[in-house]
């Protein structure tokens, strides 16, 4: 009990320092010996308290570097509803922008045909871009849609919104999406485009968007920089 109480006091000391601004996001945590003296605790308990705050994502630590106060991600992306990335960025007061990497019409691959229920020989419109906030990269987006629903020219005429372009070009409204979420440690081309460090994880949302008739319309790969975007959803308990 004494050890638990000591770790609690150390954690409270660090949390109070963060709350009152003594420790700012990105600041290194004071030395173990300094904290031990301030709280009148054992250095081993300080190590344990810091480890717990790292697990709770209050602090962060890379390899053998000193623990620092974690910097909060500025963007929330909801998983329980369809929200454009541009709106996610603008909601937090940033200016959303786009860097186009590729816009092309290509023959659908076997992979595309399986996702979008296409026949061999059908084409897809490929849209590859980086979404930015105040000019800084936030999300890498790769989107594929059958050219019957959207061509390159039709997309360019609709202010960068794929869903709006599909609606106005093909009179199709996206009703829902199936989403797979995967942590990607490093993807050379995408990480470089996002200006992500080699040790910075990316969160990949692989989505197939459907209309109300359950037809697959849009196949998307969105790589989010984990240091600037976090995800939020509401989950309900399944009835027994």
In brief, what are we looking at here?
With about 240 residues, the protein is of the alpha+beta class. About 30% of the residues lie in helices and about 30% in strands.
Please explain how this structure is put together.
- By secondary structure, the chain is of the alpha+beta class.
- Helix content is 30%, strand content 32%.
- The protein has helices at 2-19, 32-39, 43-55, 85-91, 110-116, 152-156, 162-170, 188-193, and strands at 59-60, 68-69, 75-78, 96-107, 123-133, 136-146, 174-184, 202-211, 216-225, 229-232.
- Helix 1 packs across helix 3 (43-55) and helix 2 crosses helix 3 (43-55).
- It is elongated, with a radius of gyration of 23 Å.
**Estimated share of beta-strand residues:** 25-35%
The end-to-end span amounts to 38 Å
Structural class: alpha+beta
CATH topology of the largest domain: Chorismate lyase
CATH class label of the largest domain: Alpha Beta
Strand order of the largest sheet: 4-5-6-9-8-7
Q: Can you name the CATH architecture of the largest domain? A: 3-Layer(aba) Sandwich
Order of helices and strands: HHHEEEHEHEEHHEHEEE
Number of strands: 10
Would you identify the CATH H-level superfamily of the largest domain? Chorismate lyase-like
The figure for the number of domains is 2
Give the CA-based shape.
Answer: elongated
Provide mean pLDDT, rounded: 90
Q: What gyration radius follows from the Cα positions, in whole Å?
A: 23 Å
Low-confidence stretches: none
Helix content: 25-40%
Enumerate how many helices there are, as a single number. 8
Profile the largest sheet: 6 strands, antiparallel
């Amino acid at each position: 009990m004494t050890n638990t109480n000591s770790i609690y006091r150390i954690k409270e000391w660090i949390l109070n320092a963060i709350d009152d601004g003594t420790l700012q996001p990105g600041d290194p945590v004071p030395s173990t010996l300094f904290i031990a003296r301030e709280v009148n605790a054992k250095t081993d308990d300080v190590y344990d308290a810091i480890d717990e705050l790292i697990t709770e994502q209050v602090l962060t630590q890379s390899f053998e570097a000193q623990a620092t106060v974690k910097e909060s991600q500025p963007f929330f992306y909801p998983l329980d509803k369809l929200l454009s990335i541009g709106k996610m960025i603008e909601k937090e007061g940033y200016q959303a922008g786009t860097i186009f990497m590729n816009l092309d019409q290509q023959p659908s691959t076997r992979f595309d045909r399986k996702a979008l229920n296409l026949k061999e020989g059908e084409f897809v419109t490929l849209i590859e871009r980086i979404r930015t906030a105040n000019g800084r990269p936030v999300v890498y987006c790769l989107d594929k849609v059958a050219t019957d629903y959207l061509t390159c020219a039709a997309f360019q005429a609709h202010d960068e919104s794929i869903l709006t372009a599909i609606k106005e070009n093909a009179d199709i409204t996206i009703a829902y999406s199936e989403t797979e979420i995967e942590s990607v440690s490093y993807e050379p081309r995408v990480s470089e485009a996002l200006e992500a460090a080699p040790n910075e994880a990316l969160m990949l949302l692989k989505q197939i968007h459907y209309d109300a008739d359950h037809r697959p319309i849009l196949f998307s790969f969105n790589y989010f920089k984990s240091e600037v975007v976090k995800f939020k959803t509401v989950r309900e308990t399944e009835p027994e």
